Amino acid sequence: MKVRVYVMLKTGVLDPQGEAVRHALGALGFDGVESVRQGKVIEMELADGTPEARISEMCEKLLANTVIESYRIETY
């Protein structure tokens, strides 16, 4: 079973990398970019039938800093 975990900073948490990307896009002539939020995608291959609760536990303990980040799990 394949899993993707999307990790993003929570709303209200400053994103200096996203702001740097927004600024760089403007400098390259890409007008109209009002904001950028940068995150990460983690892909894993797990044993079939791995419960989503187990994947959430992975996120809570290692993959996301849940104080400032949120995550979303997608299986495919």
Automatic annotation (TrEMBL):
<keyword id="KW-0067">ATP-binding</keyword>
<keyword id="KW-0436">Ligase</keyword>
<dbReference type="Pfam" id="PF02700">
    <property type="entry name" value="PurS"/>
</dbReference>
<dbReference type="GO" id="GO:0004642">
    <property type="term" value="F:phosphoribosylformylglycinamidine synthase activity"/>
</dbReference>
<keyword id="KW-0658">Purine biosynthesis</keyword>
<comment type="pathway">
    <text>Purine metabolism; IMP biosynthesis via de novo pathway; 5-amino-1-(5-phospho-D-ribosyl)imidazole from N(2)-formyl-N(1)-(5-phospho-D-ribosyl)glycinamide: step 1/2.</text>
</comment>
<dbReference type="GO" id="GO:0006189">
    <property type="term" value="P:'de novo' IMP biosynthetic process"/>
</dbReference>
<protein>
    <recommendedName>
        <fullName>Phosphoribosylformylglycinamidine synthase subunit PurS</fullName>
        <ecNumber>6.3.5.3</ecNumber>
    </recommendedName>
</protein>
<comment type="function">
    <text>Part of the phosphoribosylformylglycinamidine synthase complex involved in the purines biosynthetic pathway. Catalyzes the ATP-dependent conversion of formylglycinamide ribonucleotide (FGAR) and glutamine to yield formylglycinamidine ribonucleotide (FGAM) and glutamate. The FGAM synthase complex is composed of three subunits. PurQ produces an ammonia molecule by converting glutamine to glutamate. PurL transfers the ammonia molecule to FGAR to form FGAM in an ATP-dependent manner.</text>
</comment>
<dbReference type="InterPro" id="IPR036604">
    <property type="entry name" value="PurS-like_sf"/>
</dbReference>
<comment type="subunit">
    <text>Part of the FGAM synthase complex composed of 1 PurL, 1 PurQ and 2 PurS subunits.</text>
</comment>
<dbReference type="GO" id="GO:0005737">
    <property type="term" value="C:cytoplasm"/>
</dbReference>
<dbReference type="InterPro" id="IPR003850">
    <property type="entry name" value="PurS"/>
</dbReference>
<dbReference type="GO" id="GO:0005524">
    <property type="term" value="F:ATP binding"/>
</dbReference>
<keyword id="KW-0963">Cytoplasm</keyword>
<comment type="similarity">
    <text>Belongs to the PurS family.</text>
</comment>
<keyword id="KW-0547">Nucleotide-binding</keyword>
